[in-house]
């Protein structure tokens, strides 16, 4: 049995019954006002007619009670919204940011502008090189009251999200300011480390051009279970359907990792966007392409790329086929180095489920 909340059913019933009762009562009162015969019948049958009138007033009373409740709710909600919003009457510095007069704030704590979680600027405000129109802060609550450990006594930001106009140059990357640009935040609200953005046109690293809209993420290096931290500093993730040309190979999906010098450091989850002929091997579009800095084979074959067929097998000029489950190490000049089982190569195979009608 599916539970159904009664209130959504009762409210339309009250509106409908009050409408019918109102029409009936209006017609009845009109008859009493203009028809002497109707008034005579009312006097002769007053008890029954009085009871009927009382019954007609019940849905009207419920409608009035409902309208009063809704009015009180809207008034309370408007009061809460007013307490959690503010407009700066003069230029002020809040959360380490210089804000012009007319800035609209959404507050986390009532009547406390310092607790703002969003700021909308009437004119662009330059924050870390970004012509910012909208600022959003992710806040961490503080509970410092020993008498009430669950009471929020304050907040401090942990991350900032900026949106604005044009293109922002940040640490050598061209970011689209109309999309979110992320920074970590100092406790006082000042922007700290750059965390990522949506790339604008004109970005290039290690002879690789990135399409506009690709997502950029800053990294301090991936930490492995043995405590090792790799040299990854930047990660670029193209949008679905976008192609990136890497060493003459069209790739899509996944992520491209770069070190601090912006040299290509790794590929993960990327697939061939187009069929590729590499040496004697022909790989169909959709073949997974990996470049892992910590793979077991990397020490022996530092310049190798790993190609892992998925749905469609790779084919050799001799007619040999490489099916799903086996990966091939090759250099980009076509030299075949080694064949590996996917498990040994570090390739994770996922089970794909297709849900649909059996016809």
UniProtKB/TrEMBL annotation:
<protein>
    <submittedName>
        <fullName>Uncharacterized protein</fullName>
    </submittedName>
</protein>
């Amino acid at each position: 049995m599916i539970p159904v909340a009664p209130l959504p059913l009762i409210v339309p019933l009250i509106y409908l019954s009050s409408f019918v009762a109102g029409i009936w009562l209006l017609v009845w009162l009109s008859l009493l006002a203009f028809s002497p015969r109707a008034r005579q019948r009312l006097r002769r049958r007053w008890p029954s007619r009085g009871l009927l009138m009382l019954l007609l007033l019940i849905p009207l009373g419920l409608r009035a009670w409902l309208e009063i409740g809704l009015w009180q709710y809207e008034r309370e909600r408007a009061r809460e919204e007013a307490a959690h919003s503010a407009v700066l009457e003069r230029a002020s510095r809040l959360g380490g940011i210089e804000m012009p007069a007319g800035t609209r704030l959404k507050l986390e704590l009532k009547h406390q502008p310092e607790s703002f979680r969003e700021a909308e600027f009437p004119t662009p405000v330059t924050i870390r090189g970004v012509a910012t129109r909208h600022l959003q802060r992710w806040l961490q609550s503080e509970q410092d009251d020993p008498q009430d450990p669950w009471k929020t006594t304050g907040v401090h930001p942990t991350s900032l999200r900026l949106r604005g106009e044009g293109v922002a140059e940040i640490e050598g990357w061209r970011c689209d300011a109309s999309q979110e640009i992320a920074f970590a935040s100092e406790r006082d609200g000042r922007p700290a480390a750059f965390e990522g953005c949506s790339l604008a046109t004109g970005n290039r690293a290690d002879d690789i051009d990135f399409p506009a809209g690709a997502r950029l993420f800053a990294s301090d290096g991936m930490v492995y279970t043995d405590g090792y931290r790799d040299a990854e500093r930047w990660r670029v993730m193209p949008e679905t359907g976008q192609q990136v040309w890497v060493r003459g190979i069209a790739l899509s999906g996944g992520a491209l990792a770069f070190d601090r010098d912006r040299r290509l450091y790794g590929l993960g989850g990327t697939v061939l966007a187009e069929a590729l002929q590499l040496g004697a091997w022909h790989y169909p579009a959709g073949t997974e392409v990996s470049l892992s800095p910590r793979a077991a084979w990397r020490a022996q074959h530092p310049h190798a790329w790993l190609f892992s067929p998925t749905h469609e097998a790779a084919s050799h000029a001799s007619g040999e086929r490489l099916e799903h489950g086996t990966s091939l190490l090759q250099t980009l000049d076509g030299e075949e180095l080694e064949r590996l089982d996917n498990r040994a190569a570090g390739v994770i195979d996922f089970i794909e489920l297709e849900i649909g009608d059996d016809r």
